[in-house]
Write a sequence for this structure.
C-alpha cells in the first residue's frame, strides 16, 4: 500500500509510535505488539499488521509516493548531540540524562557539588556509593550512572568543572582548606562520640552488673559494730604495719593436672587467713601497732566485668560467675578487715589494679559504706593511679605497677604529686605489685625504696605456660617505725604441705 491509499490515522500513529516499535515491526513481531500495546495503538490485529508493513516500507524508502517526491528529505542527524548533561548557570541546575532513565534529572547545583565533595578523596575519607545514595535519597543505580556521566571519581578535586573554570584559584584553595578543616572536625566529633558511647556502655554494664549487686549486698545491713580488741602488750616504740596483700586474684581457677597446682576460692580463703594469722602472730611480739594499712584492689579480684574478663578484656579462668565473685569478694574482705580490727585501727588505701580496676574501687566503696560509723576503720577516698599516705616521718606510695613501675619514674612522680610530704618525710617507700614476686630496689638519689609485693595466688594456665611457677608465695607485713622508717619485714609463708 502506498501513501496515497493509507488512512489518515495511520500517519498519526506513525508519528506517535514509529520510534518506539520500528525494530519490532521490522522483525514482524505482530502478536507481541498487539498483545502488549494493542490498547494503546487502537488497531485490530490484521490492521496492525498492515499498518506495520506500511510503516516499515516507508522507513526503508519503498513507499512509491515518497520515492516520487522531488524535494530532498531533511537530515535530522545534524541536530543530535552526544552531551549527557547541561548546566544552567542562571538557575544553578544540572540537567542530566542517565542511561535507561526515560526522563532527564534536574539536580540543584548545591546537591551536585555536595556529591562531588562527598565522593572525592580530598579529605582522606571519601563516601561510598551506598553512603551517597542514602545521604541524598537516590537509588544506587542512579548514583553509579550519575558519577559516570559527570566523570566524578575518588581522585577528583572537591569542585565541579564549572567552579574550576570560573572561580579564582586563591578562592578555591581557601575553600579546599576549609573543607579539610571541616573534615578533621567531623572525624574528631565522630571519635569523641564513639568514646562517649563506649564510656556510657561501660557505665551501663557497671551499673547493671556491679552496682546492683553492691546494693543487694548492702541492703538491710545494719551498721557495723565495734569489735573486741585482742589483749596485746604495748609496743616499745610506736609503729604502723603495712599489710602487703597484692595480686590475690580472688575467683581464679587452676587445675592441678594442667598447671601443676590447684587453686580455687576455697583454697584461696584458707591460704589468706592461714598466712594472716601466721604473720600477725609474729608481728604482735613487737607489741600493738598504732595502725594497719591495708591495700584494696591491686588485682584482689581476678576479673573486672560481666564477661569474666580483666579491665582490658583478657578472658580468665574463673571459679564462679562474675557476680558471685564480687559478692563473695566483698564478704572475704569484710572478714579480713574485722580480723585486723582486733589488732589495731585499719586504714584502707586503694591500689588500682589492671585485673579489677572498677571492681577494686567497688569493694572500697562497699567497705566505706559498711564501716562509716566505725572509728577504728578509715577509708582513704583517693582514686588516683598512685595513692600516698604518711605516718610520722614515713611517706608511702601504693602503686600497682602495671603502668608506672620504674623506680626513677616513681621517685620523680612522688616528688611532684606528694611534694609537701616529700620534704617532710625522710623515709620514702613505694609499694607495688603486678609481677607476683618480691623484689626490693633502692634509689640512692631519691632516698626511695621500692618494695614489690609477692602474691598468694595460685598458678593459672598463662603463668604455667610462661614458666612463672617458682616464686615463693607468702604474705608480708612491713613494720614502719614512726621516726626511723622500716625496721622489720615479717613473712607469713604458704604451707606447702
Amino acid at each position: 500500500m502506498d501513501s496515497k491509499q493509507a488512512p489518515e490515522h495511520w500517519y498519526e500513529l506513525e508519528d506517535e509510535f514509529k520510534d518506539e516499535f520500528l525494530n519490532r515491526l521490522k522483525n514482524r513481531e505482530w502478536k507481541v505488539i498487539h498483545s502488549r500495546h494493542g490498547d494503546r495503538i487502537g488497531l485490530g490485529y490484521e490492521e496492525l499488521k498492515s499498518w506495520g508493513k506500511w510503516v516499515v516500507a516507508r522507513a526503508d524508502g519503498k513507499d512509491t509516493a515518497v520515492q516520487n517526491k522531488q524535494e530532498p528529505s531533511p537530515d535530522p542527524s545534524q541536530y543530535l548531540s552526544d552531551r549527557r548533561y547541561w548546566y544552567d548557570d542562571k538557575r544553578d541546575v544540572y540537567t542530566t540524562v542517565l542511561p535507561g532513565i526515560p526522563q532527564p534529572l534536574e539536580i540543584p547545583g548545591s546537591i551536585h557539588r555536595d556529591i562531588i565533595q562527598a565522593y572525592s578523596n580530598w579529605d582522606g575519607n571519601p563516601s561510598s556509593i551506598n553512603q551517597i545514595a542514602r545521604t541524598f535519597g537516590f537509588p544506587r543505580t542512579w548514583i553509579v550512572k550519575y558519577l559516570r556521566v559527570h566523570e566524578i571519581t575518588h581522585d577528583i578535586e572537591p569542585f565541579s568543572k564549572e567552579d574550576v573554570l570560573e572561580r579564582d584559584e586563591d578562592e578555591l584553595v581557601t575553600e579546599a582548606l576549609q573543607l579539610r578543616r571541616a573534615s578533621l572536625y567531623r572525624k574528631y566529633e565522630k571519635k569523641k562520640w564513639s568514646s562517649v558511647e563506649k564510656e556510657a556502655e561501660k557505665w551501663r554494664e557497671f551499673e547493671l552488673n556491679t552496682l546492683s549487686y553492691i546494693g543487694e549486698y548492702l541492703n538491710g545491713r545494719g551498721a557495723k559494730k565495734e569489735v573486741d580488741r585482742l589483749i596485746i602488750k604495748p609496743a616499745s616504740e610506736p609503729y604502723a604495719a603495712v599489710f602487703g596483700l597484692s595480686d590475690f586474684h580472688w575467683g581464679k581457677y587452676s587445675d592441678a593436672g594442667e598447671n601443676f597446682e590447684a587453686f580455687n576460692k576455697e583454697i584461696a580463703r584458707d591460704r589468706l587467713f592461714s598466712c594472716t594469722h601466721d604473720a600477725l602472730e609474729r608481728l604482735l611480739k613487737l607489741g600493738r601497732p598504732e595502725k594497719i594499712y591495708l591495700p584494696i584492689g591491686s588485682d584482689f579480684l581476678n576479673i573486672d566485668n560481666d564477661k569474666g574478663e580483666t579491665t582490658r578484656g583478657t578472658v580468665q579462668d574463673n571459679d564462679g560467675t562474675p557476680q558471685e565473685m564480687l559478692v563473695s569478694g566483698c564478704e572475704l574482705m569484710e572478714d579480713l578487715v574485722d580480723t585486723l580490727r582486733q589488732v589495731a585501727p585499719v586504714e584502707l588505701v586503694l591500689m588500682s589494679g589492671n585485673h579489677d580496676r572498677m571492681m577494686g574501687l567497688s569493694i572500697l566503696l562497699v567497705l566505706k559504706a559498711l564501716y562509716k560509723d566505725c572509728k577504728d576503720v578509715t577509708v582513704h577516698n583517693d582514686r588516683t593511679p598512685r595513692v600516698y599516705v604518711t605516718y610520722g616521718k614515713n611517706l608511702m606510695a601504693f602503686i600497682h605497677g602495671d603502668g608506672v613501675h620504674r623506680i626513677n619514674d616513681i621517685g620523680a612522680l612522688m616528688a611532684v604529686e606528694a611534694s609537701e610530704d616529700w620534704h617532710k618525710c625522710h623515709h620514702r617507700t613505694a609499694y607495688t605489685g603486678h609481677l607476683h614476686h618480691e623484689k626490693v630496689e633502692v634509689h640512692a638519689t631519691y632516698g626511695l625504696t621500692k618494695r614489690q609485693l609477692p602474691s598468694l595466688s595460685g598458678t593459672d594456665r598463662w603463668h604455667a605456660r610462661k614458666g612463672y611457677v617458682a616464686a615463693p608465695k607468702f604474705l608480708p607485713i612491713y613494720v614502719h617505725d614512726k621516726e626511723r622508717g622500716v625496721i622489720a619485714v615479717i613473712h607469713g609463708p604458704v604451707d606447702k604441705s
